[in-house]
Amino acid sequence: QSVLTQPPSASGTPEQRVTISCSGSSSNIGSNYVNWYQQLPGTAPKLLIYNNNLRPSGVPDRFSGSKSGTSASLAISGLQSDDEADYYCAAWDGGLNGYVFGTGTKVTVL
Amino acid sequence: QVQLQESGPGLVRPSETLSLTCSVSGDSLSVYYWSWIRQSPGKGLEWIGYSHYSGSTNYNPSLKSRVTVSLDTSSNQFSLKLTSVTAADTAVYYCARGSQTTIFRPSGQSKTYYFDYWGRGALVTVSS
Lengths: 110, 128
Hints:
heterodimer, A: mainly beta, 6-stranded mixed beta sheet, 3-stranded antiparallel beta sheet, 9 strands, globular, B: mainly beta, 4-stranded antiparallel beta sheet, 0% helix
């Protein structure tokens, strides 16, 4: 049972902007940094955003992250067919003393 | 270029011990938090735990009684052992390199922990 809640799905047409939400609590998102992972079909997850809004080298600036209170968001601008994937938020949870992932959101490009 | 590769049996009998090894190239085990994550078929990601060179370990509370993650610096590998497995432990198991930092502020502390390199994953099926 994940403690971070995401919408099951999101979609958009090419070049549109899509936003994915991640809802948590004071013990995880509210007090620690949020990360986002992209999992393309049949592959291992890939770090997309770390420390709320930083992009690892090689990640396009079309991907951006933000955090406010106990919620976080991932925005994908200029949506491309290659962006079809599952996206997971994650954060350290001080109450559980462990790392928790979100429920995951499947992004579809229409 | 950092690379991780999981290896181990793809089939484990119920009640037995699941054992996986992660071989690391392009990096040393003496830094970072070497971690395991799993994903049940068609489901989301679940953090299993980590081991650090300092001797520090931390495990998912729901698995803590059955899990051990250990480092072998001589071979630059780390391992996962999960005891008393059931069908619910059937999953793709990923090893990953974890970075963790705690930032102290007057208002409290914030922790960042994320995985920047992952293995391709190893499917382990628990079945008789």
